[in-house]
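Why do we care about 3D structure at all? Because function follows from shape, and shape follows, mostly, from sequence. That is the central idea of this module. The next example makes it concrete: a single protein chain, its amino acid sequence, and then its structure expressed as tokens.
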Amino acid sequence: MGEKGLTGGLVDFARRQPGMVVLVLVLAGLYLSKAGTGDSDRAVIVANVDLPAPSLVIHNRTTYAVGVDPRAPDAIQLLSSRDRHTWTVHPNALAAPPSWADPSGGLGPAAIGVFDGSFVLYYTATVRGLGLRCVSAATSKHLDEPFEDTSLAPFVCQTAEGGSTDPSPYVDAAGRPYLAWSSPGQAGGSGPALWAQPLRSDGLVLTGDPAVLLRPSLPWQDGRVASPSLLEDDGHYHLVYSAAPELNDRQVVADASCRTPLGPCQPTDRPLLTGSLAGSGPGGAHAFADTSHHWWLGLHTWDSPPTGAYTPVGQFVVVPLQLHDNKLKIDITSTAHGTLRTPTRRDHDDTDSGGTDRTEHRRFDFNRENRDAQDLDRN
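And the structure:
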């Protein structure tokens, strides 16, 4: 562009064609606005995945979801995704339950904590001889390897509270780890509650004393609270949880503001999500933040209300979670259908290197998962 250079040429063009410059700026603004919001109002619904209480965590730009599918109660399902739309189904995340766990009781809600490069899988199992569901902890050095549980007793087990379930690890802005969970209560006791307690830096030892975050106190909670998870924004703590009975269209997702990660927490007057385009009876919600500090919610919904002869089918859903005026908000105006595939050996290489995902997509067949895992072992 001669002596004027690129900058001078652009200035001359702007002087000669001001209307064109305005149009370009408007179009660019619309594009950037759309790109910036992305899926800010879109729910991703993943059919054929029925995790009543999914828990999600992000590590190395990959989102991992864990939970127990009622169709396979003896296994902990592990899913991974680079975009939260296409999910890879991995083999059972837990090598084997400990000896104190009653195999006839199956496994329950699970969550993964990331601590200084090592990983802890917190999950629910039934205590042999007690019939109570309590939380255990298993460890692994890599997320692509099964977690090992060598415990001789449960990690958290509140016998006076009817047991302990729904584990959810949380690390605050200062790097201090905590574990939140729920207790169902029992007859003659103090009823259901959400709890939290500090953890040692490796996530393997509870320190201090357990603190009550929340107990049901509002009519729409219907006497039940469960599935706690915590988020923090500039010193403000937000508790996301589920309320009302499970397995029907009355369950809701709710939130509360907390003074500290150990409470006390004040519930909002209304539920955060009662059902929408994302499905009926939302519950088992788990809040998490991505690497760009955007907030998300993984949850379980039914594809329809339980009416008539049709039996509703559970589905795994991921929705954006917004914060306005220090209040949580979910505004879903559209949906997208997630896809499932099974992993190949190259997936681990791509995940570690950050390379492009080259695995061929396949239609997911739940009954074929174990055969696929065996094929991977033989390869």
